[in-house]
């Protein structure tokens, strides 16, 4: 099969790799859509690896001895390989599992865990079946496009009575804009990139503030009767962004952080804020609500998907990501396929 690999600093290629084989509860999924996430940063940083990609949507082609999925099932592939036995896995929070499985070592195979590939190997319980009325393109949002911010909105119980700030309008933040809008919330964005700013307006943002030219905290307070927003999602990890996010949120409000770096916050005691760290969504307990969120998002998802490209063009796709002038990019691992 064909699969992408970062072969040198700044270089990604598509190579021939062994196709994985099902074993026990480890099933083989034909990857029809591989949504692109942060792997372009790894290429830029020179992190050489032949395991590239962590998002996928496709079809089960070899179910092994699984009793949970069957050949032909359309599925969304959850990231990671939780043990399936610990308190985190059994409650659906497998991302926090402290004993992740090494599925290649278990099966004696050389390759099969990357998603920028034509096939992958996955524990059956980490596959979410896609309802018949939802297209593969839209279902692929149930990975990182919607997943982390969906969990954030659920954790904070954001609804039509709330004002929501989304700080950082990359693809993850744009997913939050869509979901906040379809919940009826008033949505503000914080972003410096003009392309992302315009995209956020198309997706449902009421206002987008540029922290380089505006006093974001004062502007948001002025638009909320001096109170600040009810809930904030910070995705950028930019210097100063966590502090601004906290200060722009009303007292006794909530802030979710979806960033992978240390953050600096103001004194939380007088603010009375509830702070959350969010990684991904719980597919065992939240699936019905996720699918309903995707249904309601409808055409907004189509707007967020700005590029669909063959896997063989992954280098060009990462070049686009480097510019920031994109929403979600889909890789199509099978030549000539469509995403439907």
UniProtKB/TrEMBL annotation:
Keywords: Metal-binding, Oxidoreductase, Zinc. It comes from Lysobacter korlensis. This is Zinc-binding dehydrogenase. Pfam families: ADH_N, ADH_zinc_N. Residues 10-331 form the Enoyl reductase (ER) domain. It comes from the Bacteria. The keyword Translocase does not apply. SUPFAM superfamilies: GroES-like, NAD(P)-binding Rossmann-fold domains.
